[in-house]
Amino acid sequence: MLDRIITILLFFCLFENAYGQKITYYEHVAPIIHNKCASCHRPGEAGPFSLLTYSDVVKRVSFIKDVVTSGFMPPWKPDNHYRAFANDRSLTAEEKKTIISWIDNKAPEGNDKQEKTSGDTFIEGTQYTRKPDLTLKVNKPFEVKGDNEERFIVFKIPFDIATAKNVAAMEFVSSNKKIIHHANFAIHPVADNIDINQAADYVNLTDDSRVNYDQYLPFKKEMTYYGGWIPGTSYESYPADLGWIMPKRGVILLTIHYAPLGKDENDISGINLFFKDTPIKRVVNVVSLGSGGVGESSIDPYFMIQADSVKKFNLKILTPQDQSLLYIWPHMHLLGKSFKSYAVTSTGDTIKLISIPDWDFRWQEIYRFNKLIKVPKGSVLTIEGVYDNTKNNPNNPNNPPKMIFSANDMKSTDEMLTMILVFLKYEGGDENKHLDILELLKK
Ligand code: HEC
Asked: Of all protein residues, whose CA lies closest to atom 9 belonging to ligand 1?
């Protein structure tokens, strides 16, 4: 008897959701797939196939069950107990259960063909919630040779827009993201007496003399903003009266690190900008810490990873003023095993920033805090990175392992311990300011 009751209860658990309704695609599953999967699984994005319609999803249910159960999809690496983020794309336990129960119940479509989504639909060519106001990109496709060489190219993108604009969000765009290892861009305002169209369209740092790069020096007197992209990254957005101002005239110097390719490919890259009419009262800044940035020489011990070793490094940096953090962006390469960052205030309090216990080079992100995080002046910001340079690391590019350090352009087979912070000078009450993008859009 008891057995039967349990079987019946189990039956209900599997076939119904918490509200006792039958789980159907349109009613229950589509909104989850839309919010947590389709940003990548749609045309032009990173996912290998689309998950936009019932038929896209239903033909892959056993595959989907596997990746959802194992946690492989959606990719989300930070430990949410250490610090949770506003752009978290992981599934809640409830969402996981809904998807799995639906699949176990033969994935019924349901009657209501009207797809229920969060209300926003995707726009091709952007991860953001609306069309860009301005796209600045290279003017012709760049041919990347398929000779298995990594390449570093600096593109010059001149711009002259009628007036300076208040930036609400920005993102990197490319016609061929899968061949890009990473990208960085600096936005330089340029004085009227300097010709922004002078100098070559690009400088090839890998094949040509590095002296060529000097032709861009006239553009580099000032810098408005510095951004970047690594696989998995979406966009950066700034709420309310926060942001930065896109200068009227200048040059973007966009450095792209192309992955080694077995066949010729081409690429057109640039940035999308989203403007707002409301004033920007507080300007957002960026700082890059560690390899290639501030404090590089203070990484302890000296940044060198002997073959067959698992090694931990740390970097401690004093916070020079009261700051409020918006975004945090950890970066390591293939030997990375775990990454952690926290700040210890002068009174001994620890502010947890991020922990990625199981680093995966493929899935990186600019993590947006739920609320602005105050880091008081005098706090010691600590970054810890652990690297596995043994043959037990399946991502180790060298077999047998060899000594690795960080050098010049830092190829993917070199290593980095880097953390980029997007921050503001602190103002009273910042710690209560939410950074949730949906909330911002409603305002
Ligand atoms: C951040 C982007 C992103 C998100 C979000 C995402 N995926 Fe993926 N997904 C990918 C990429 C890229 C691959 C290819 C990965 C690879 O080949 O290693 C992939 C692969 C897959 C695969 C094939 C796995 C395999 O072994 O080949 C399935 C199934 C899948 N995703 C389902 C989902 C589902 C379901 C969701 C939401 C619950 C989701 N994905 C969310 C980017 C994403």
From this structure: 47
- Start-end of H helices in 229-339: none
Q: 144 pLDDT exceeds 70? A: yes
**Local confidence band at 5 (pLDDT 50, 70, 90 cut-offs):** very low
φ and ψ at residue 93, rounded to 5 degrees: -55, -40
> Does the pLDDT value for residue 97 go beyond 60?
yes
For a ligand 1 pocket test, name from 42, 57, 62, 67 the mutation site with the most ligand atoms within 8 angstroms of its C-beta: 67
Query: What's the structural domain count of the chain?
Result: 3
Assess whether 405 and 321 both reside in one domain.
yes
User: What per-residue confidence (pLDDT) applies to 12?
Assistant: 43
Q: Tell which of 216, 249, 282 closes a domain.
A: 282
Classify the C-alpha dihedral 259-264-265-267 as positive or negative.
Answer: positive
CB 144 within 8 A of CB 266: yes
Q: Tokens 């970097």 correspond to what residue? A: 315
Structural domain containing residue 202: 134-282
120 CA → ligand 1 middle, Å = 21
Q: In this structure, are 324 and 421 located in the same domain?
A: yes
Question: Does 79 share its domain with 165?
Answer: no
Per-range mean pLDDT, top range of 52-61, 180-189, 230-239? 52-61
Over residues 317-324, the mean pLDDT reads 97
| Spatial distance between the Cα atoms of 260 and 258, rounded to a whole number of angstroms | 7
The CATH code of the domain that includes 290 is 2.60.120.230
- Which protein residues are within 6 Å of ligand 1, measured from CB? 36-37, 39-41, 46-48, 60, 63-64, 67-68, 73-75, 89, 91, 232
Choose the weakest-confidence range: 213-222, 268-277, 310-319.
213-222
Element (H, E) at 63: helix 61-70
pLDDT of 427 higher than 70: yes
Is 166 found in the same domain as 243? yes
Helix (H, G, I), strand (E, B) or coil at 73: coil
206: CATH: 2.60.120
Domain co-membership, 334 together with 274: no
> What value does the mean pLDDT take over residues 356-379?
93
Q: Separation of 273 CA from ligand 1 center, angstroms?
A: 27
Ligand 1 centroid vs 74 CA: distance in angstroms?
A: 6
| % pLDDT > 70, the chain | 90
Residue entry with tokens 């490094």: 313
Cα-to-centroid distance, 7 and ligand 1 (Å): 34
